[in-house]
Amino acid sequence: TTIYLKDYAPFGYLVDEISLTFDLAPNATRVHSRIAFRPNPDATDRTFFLHGEQLSLISARIDDQPVEPEVTEKGLTCKVPDGPFTWETEVEIDPSGNTALEGLYMSNGMYCTQCEAEGFRKITYYPDRPDVMGVFSVRINGDLPVLLSNGNPVDSGEGFAEWHDPWPKPAYLFALVAGDLVAHSDRFTTVSGRDVALNLYVRPGDEGKCAFGMEALKKSMKWDEDVYGREYDLDVFNIVAVDDFNMGAMENKGLNIFNSSAVLASPETSTDANFERIEAIIAHEYFHNWTGNRITCRDWFQLCLKEGLTVFRDAQFTADMRSAAVKRIEDVIDLRARQFPEDNGPLAHPVRPESFQEINNFYTATVYEKGAEVIGILKRLVGDRAYAEALDLYFARHDGQACTIEDWLAVFEEVTGRDLSQFKRWYSDAGTPRVSVQEDWDGSTYTLTLSQQTPPTPGQPDKPPRVIPVAVGLLGPNGDELRPTEMLELTEARQSFRFDGLPSKPVPSILREFSAPVILDRDSPTSERAFLLAHDTDPFNRWEAGRSLARDTVLAMAVDGAAPNASYLDGIHAVLRDDTLDPAYRALMAGLPGQSELAGTLHERGITPDPMAIYQACEDLRQALAETCRDMLPRLHADTRVDAPYAPDAEQSGKRALAGTALALITRLDGGELAAEEYAAADNMTLQLTALAALLHAGKGETQLSQFHDQWRDDRLVMDKWFGLQVSMAKPDRAAQVAQALTQHADFNWKNPNRFRAVMGALATNHAGFHHASGAAYALLADWLIRLDPVNPQTTARMFTAFQTWRRYDADRQALIAAQLDRIAATPDLSPDSTEMIARIRGG
Ligand code: ARG
Ligand code: ZN
């Protein structure tokens, strides 16, 4: 069944208070609920329907009198009094049999919950919708040492604990944890003097991996006070790490639950990239306390209201903690890798979708990452000061409410007096706009003519022009700035912008800072891009110039058998040896676009991509870069040595990234000699993994791989890396085979989402391996999706994105993929989650 935004209607009843009592038992947990309902004056429909799935109803009462509700697989209905009443039920559930990891489930003997989006209905009967907000009190009876729920602790003793959350909240923010856990504790005093107890709960043995996450939490709390004026509002803030989790983490009020991969870290077991990601996710979940919890969503169509804004806020935080330029480039790399394929394929949907079947399928790169880009556009259009004022108004006006995008836009319209109806198309219209550029120079006036066009997406044939902020700077012949960055507002399909009184024809630097998530179509001469690579004063666009040179040379190599472009090689050589540039930035400059992204670019240009040819061209270009840089690489590698004790900060990790780039290039020249030395000497996971990857690329590293296994066999998170790396590094004709062999490994616990994704996710992103002409990888992934679907539909459905680009490829590959999709679709009792994904991918 499809649900539509336009059908929204409020629930007929309001919840004042809800009390829950849990009697925990692995296979037969009893949940008693007592809920104070009263008629909702804003609603007309008085149908009393409560969601409930996979529950055994033991008893139901209204105002202490037994009632017999009508129960279906989806919930219950009951005749209720006209005025306020108390509703009580007792249900029995089976946490230990819950492999879907939604609702109340067990992971290694620990009870834990995941309720967003619609998991609470697997815990008890309730109006499980975000616009129903209630004050929760929870009592947990169980013989485990740690018993946690939302809010503040009220009482605890032998075998029980009671919690009270004073802030009304929707059911999706409910959480419960019970287990044999240990706490890493600290404190934080808020700006107004509230003393908050902070705890990070982990399994015994993981205590040594908590310190970094705790520091990240304190930094986040401080940052949200300083930058957004947002203070924490409870006496405790608890975080729990769990091994079996479908997503990264969850912002339950006062009790965040994290995938252990998104919080546990130590230098020996985590890479610099892991540390950066953990810091960002801790911040993200913490920031949800205001953008998500205090102000929540009216319905799930408004998901981007909390997610886009919170991703935007966590990106601002990372930019402040680390390097803003590096963070922006990393985010654009990620956007192009994950969101652009979605926006330009059969799964394209608006940032605010208007219909869905399974909401879990809409926790997407479009809702999250494009949703954050849209906030960035808005901030560029109104300016920093109006943005800050509008946010203050948003928090003041909507605290305690369940809101919509309309509410969000209204505060901006009020503060700025600006009509945002055209801007709103960013929320309603799917697809990535393409902006093309025409230049005109008459001796003193320079005119830029920008045109925009957005291709059709499923269900949306016509795309009217939208407002696109295009940041432009003009450079003179020596790289001097003739005009500093100016924000052009493209609002028409085609529009000209004049720059008068220029001494000479400028070189334009367009879409600085990636000021909007668009594809810039511009055929500029190689010399101009080489010039920008050397001189652009905007760090993003300087990187972008190198990126577009790389893209064009590698595609010319793949398609026409061209030789590597010398401007590219010389330009990168110059960047690598330029000690005035941040090492992290230099490492990013030296990277190539992903092979899937390159395939997408060819497809946009009307050429059917050949994955093997793209793979080979990338290999050849890397080899040519190694040759070009031969003489400077040893020095570069030596200069980026970190002698200080390991710290996961921006400075050290930038050096290690550049050292890693040097090592990978050197390995192409020395066959792995240096990499083997580095591996043997490595005392941190970043170096150990970089060296191992270099060895595997060189066709070596078998010994190190088994050493690595012996060293880390008891560390779940490191073993995920061991599984993933082998599949990522496998040569195209071996990838499916390597992945298949790993699924037979004793440690391949496929019901654990992290382990499943380590292997299958790596296979799907090994572009040439996944798209190998044999079709072996398609078949292997399909086999495993069929197997996982009845166990864990959410994690299964998410992996179908591997197939979303299938229409780009040749007829043989399309036929192979279609056959696998049809085979999966024909599986009896396939989950609604997977059914929806296949229908959309197949149909679009
Ligand atoms: N709200 C969580 C976050 O953004 C993600 C929860 C996703 N849950 C789901 N069922 N898809 O941090
Ligand atoms: Zn979020």
UniProtKB/TrEMBL annotation:
<dbReference type="InterPro" id="IPR038438">
    <property type="entry name" value="PepN_Ig-like_sf"/>
</dbReference>
<dbReference type="GO" id="GO:0016285">
    <property type="term" value="F:alanyl aminopeptidase activity"/>
</dbReference>
<keyword id="KW-0479">Metal-binding</keyword>
<dbReference type="Pfam" id="PF11940">
    <property type="entry name" value="DUF3458"/>
</dbReference>
<feature type="domain" description="Peptidase M1 membrane alanine aminopeptidase">
    <location>
        <begin position="212"/>
        <end position="426"/>
    </location>
</feature>
<protein>
    <recommendedName>
        <fullName>Aminopeptidase N</fullName>
        <ecNumber>3.4.11.2</ecNumber>
    </recommendedName>
</protein>
<dbReference type="GO" id="GO:0006508">
    <property type="term" value="P:proteolysis"/>
</dbReference>
<keyword id="KW-0378">Hydrolase</keyword>
<dbReference type="GO" id="GO:0008270">
    <property type="term" value="F:zinc ion binding"/>
</dbReference>
<dbReference type="InterPro" id="IPR027268">
    <property type="entry name" value="Peptidase_M4/M1_CTD_sf"/>
</dbReference>
<keyword id="KW-0862">Zinc</keyword>
<dbReference type="InterPro" id="IPR014782">
    <property type="entry name" value="Peptidase_M1_dom"/>
</dbReference>
<dbReference type="InterPro" id="IPR035414">
    <property type="entry name" value="Peptidase_M1_pepN_Ig-like"/>
</dbReference>
<dbReference type="GO" id="GO:0008237">
    <property type="term" value="F:metallopeptidase activity"/>
</dbReference>
<keyword id="KW-0482">Metalloprotease</keyword>
<dbReference type="InterPro" id="IPR037144">
    <property type="entry name" value="Peptidase_M1_pepN_C_sf"/>
</dbReference>
<dbReference type="InterPro" id="IPR012779">
    <property type="entry name" value="Peptidase_M1_pepN"/>
</dbReference>
<comment type="similarity">
    <text>Belongs to the peptidase M1 family.</text>
</comment>
<dbReference type="Pfam" id="PF01433">
    <property type="entry name" value="Peptidase_M1"/>
</dbReference>
<dbReference type="InterPro" id="IPR001930">
    <property type="entry name" value="Peptidase_M1"/>
</dbReference>
<feature type="domain" description="Peptidase M1 alanyl aminopeptidase C-terminal">
    <location>
        <begin position="527"/>
        <end position="841"/>
    </location>
</feature>
<dbReference type="Pfam" id="PF17900">
    <property type="entry name" value="Peptidase_M1_N"/>
</dbReference>
<feature type="domain" description="Peptidase M1 alanyl aminopeptidase Ig-like fold">
    <location>
        <begin position="431"/>
        <end position="522"/>
    </location>
</feature>
<keyword id="KW-0645">Protease</keyword>
<dbReference type="InterPro" id="IPR024601">
    <property type="entry name" value="Peptidase_M1_pepN_C"/>
</dbReference>
<keyword id="KW-0031">Aminopeptidase</keyword>
<dbReference type="InterPro" id="IPR045357">
    <property type="entry name" value="Aminopeptidase_N-like_N"/>
</dbReference>
<dbReference type="InterPro" id="IPR042097">
    <property type="entry name" value="Aminopeptidase_N-like_N_sf"/>
</dbReference>
<feature type="domain" description="Aminopeptidase N-like N-terminal">
    <location>
        <begin position="21"/>
        <end position="173"/>
    </location>
</feature>
<dbReference type="Pfam" id="PF17432">
    <property type="entry name" value="DUF3458_C"/>
</dbReference>
